[in-house]
Design brief:
Helices cover about 25% and strands about 35% of the residues. It is of the alpha+beta class. The longest helix is centred in the middle third of the chain and has 39 residues.
């Protein structure tokens, strides 16, 4: 049964007219608001707009990484637990590196030996360069040594049995080979040290950016193998929504486009912006992944969100538009107070649609354009289902 109470008319054309262009809808000339006697009534407006489709998506961090073990070892350090925040460069996880340090010390010893061999080979080369062994006299003293220098060696060169120049070149080449071998040994030892240093860097995991630990998979003392996950680290200051958009709706989207999304937990409607449209579609599901930027502080990673995506393939819809302040809930059922034939308001249940700009709401059913409703019904207003407060 409908209930009637006295009310006064209110004009709101300016508020709706300012809201409609930003929503991409057109207002007809007949869609005007009346303003009478204190302005408590609102004339229901008819709005034409593009149909939208609500698509479910998941809130995800702007940046997220999964740190994994790069070498076997035991976890000796873990920075914190889920929810702890860290600055860029902070040590998050460290594996035991005792064996790597021992191997590095051995490589340093090899490097020192190779350096000593290089210095010794250089000394031998200089000695052969300035004091060739081929021109030195044989051992001994007295007349035999003198005879060897004056007669034996000159006769060997004259007869062709010995060439001191060739011997000197061979000795110089042998000394040069020793220098090259020592240099190669140094290079090999340095390469081993570099490889060990790389493994030592892999034994620790530093925060790649300012962020928070979302999930950890290890505890101090766990033994890890290469490829095992350590923890999930993310930047949750900026959040995005990942949505699989049907391919038929893809032409209606472009980057930096502003849309609306409804949070699953609170039901709050917030503006979102198209951040990225993936270039390829899923061949199995025929959908395109789209990322939307969320305002800061309205949600958390993993939450479910419904994004309202325009559907240009569907016919344009005509829905009445009313102020959100005019809706009163009877339990979970929304309703408005409509002006009756005798000028008294009557409670009517409606089906509310999406929230619009400037505090307006579209109505899917229950109202028609031109009807007059209370813009902001007072808390003490009576309905036909209850008796007025002043009645006995």
């Amino acid at each position: 049964m409908e209930i009637q109470v006295h009310a006064i008319a209110l004009a709101a054309a300016l508020g709706v007219a300012a809201m409609l262009p930003r929503l991409g809808v057109a207002q007809t000339a007949a869609q005007t608001a009346a303003q009478t006697q204190g302005g408590e009534y609102f004339v229901v407006q008819q709005a034409r707009g593009t149909s939208t489709v609500s698509l479910g998506g998941t809130v995800m961090p702007y940046k997220e990484v999964t740190l994994t073990a790069q070498l076997p070892g035991r976890v000796r350090h873990l920075a914190g637990i889920e929810g702890d925040t860290f600055d860029k460069g902070t040590l998050l996880v460290a594996l035991d590196d005792s064996e790597l340090l021992a191997t590095r010390n051995a490589a340093l010893a090899q490097l020192a030996n190779a350096d000593a061999q290089l210095r010794a080979a250089g000394v031998q080369y200089n000695r052969e360069l300035w004091s060739p062994q081929s021109q030195q006299a044989m051992g001994g003293m007295g007349l035999p040594n003198l005879f060897d220098q004056m007669f034996t060696r000159p006769m060997e060169g004259f007869s062709g049995n010995r060439n001191q120049t060739v011997e000197r070149r061979a000795d110089l080449y042998s000394s040069g080979v020793q220098i090259t071998q020592a240099q190669n040994a140094i290079l090999s030892a340095q390469s081993q040290i570099q490889a060990i240093d790389a493994k030592l860097r892999d034994a620790i995991s530093l925060a790649p950016f300012d962020g928070v630990i979302l999930k950890k998979f290890v505890e101090v003392g766990d033994t890890m193998q290469p490829g095992q996950p350590l923890l999930v680290y993310a930047d949750v200051e900026y959040l995005q929504i990942m949505v699989d958009v049907p391919a038929r709706l893809r032409p209606g989207l472009y980057e930096q486009m502003m849309l609306q999304a409804e949070l699953d937990v609170t039901g709050q409607v917030v503006p979102v912006r198209v951040a990225q449209i993936f270039p390829t579609a899923d061949s199995q599901r025929h959908t395109v992944k789209v990322k939307f930027d969320l305002p800061q502080g309205v949600s958390a990673p993993g939450m479910y969100v419904k994004v309202r995506v325009p559907d240009h393939t569907a016919p344009a819809r005509n829905h009445p538009v009313i102020p959100a302040s005019s809706i009163r809930y009877n339990g979970s059922l929304p309703g408005v107070y409509v002006e009756g034939q005798n000028g008294r308001p009557e409670l009517r249940l409606i089906r509310a649609g999406e929230s619009l700009d400037n505090g307006f709401v579209s109505v899917l059913s229950g109202l028609s354009a031109g009807e007059r409703i209370l813009r902001d019904p007072a808390s003490g207003i009576a309905s036909g289902w209850t008796r007025p407060v002043d009645q006995r």
